[in-house]
Amino acid sequence: MFEDIRRAFESLLNGEVPATERRGMLSEMRETLVRARLAVDDLRSGVVATRERLVQEQQELATISRRKTLAEGIGDTETVTVAARFESHQAERVLVLDRKLEAQEGELALVEREVDEMKAQFRAASAGVGSGLREGGIGSAPLSDQALGLDDRGAGLAQELGAMDRQRRRETSDADADARLAALKKRMGL
To answer: 120 lies in a domain?
Structure first.
């Protein structure tokens, strides 16, 4: 769904984007992530609406079935015939809504995973991966002050960059754990 964006992130992370274009590209990617999150919210709303409609349609099917059973009990064949026809149509409607809900939930899970991956890539790109400022990429130690060309006045920069890197890794780890927990809950039907 987000193939173009994913390719742009990979180009950025692989250092294929000139330094002069990185800031603009990161800004566009941030906006794209915001739009993607809004799309996820819309998908969630669609799932909720379909779930609610499915419940209503199932209740309607139960009412029709109950009326048909009552008509059979009193021997009203005309009402039984009409109720059977309505019951058949309603059962088909419920089946279609159930399939729709399943498809929407699958799409939501897929898009959520893609957005989570893009967020992780965006964090890495924002932290300088692929910019030449980091020697080993994600998780590597930041360059020393001397390697950055700083004198003693910038002695705390490496520590600050290290703290930022640890925070980013912690956030990525937390997001990964949340995604795994959500997947497990979904599999368990919670």
So the answer is: no
In angstroms, rounded to a whole number, what is the distance separating the alpha carbons of residues 186 and 190? 6
Pull the structure tokens for residue 175: 């997001």
Structurally, how many domains does the chain consist of? 1
Is the residue at 155 inside a domain? no
Q: What is the DSSP letter of 152?
A: G
What does the pLDDT read at residue 118? 80
Q: Is residue 129 part of a domain?
A: no
SS3 (DSSP) at 186: helix
Q: How many C-beta neighbours within 10 Å does residue 29 have?
A: 20
Amino acid, single-letter form, for residue 37: R
Closest by CA position to 34, among listed 111, 119, 106: 119
Regarding pTM above 0.85, the answer is no
Contact 165, 127 (CB under 8 A): yes
Expressed as residue numbers, the domain containing 51 is 3-115
Low-confidence ranges of the chain (pLDDT < 50): 132-139, 142-143, 145, 148-150, 153-154
Q: Say which DSSP state 177 is in.
A: H
pLDDT, residue 60, reads 95
Radius of gyration from C-alpha coordinates of the chain: 27
SS3 118: helix
Tokens representing residue 57 in the block: 């349609």
Here the tokens at position 107 are 């799409």
- H or E stretch at 55: helix 19-74
Q: What is the pLDDT of residue 153?
A: 47
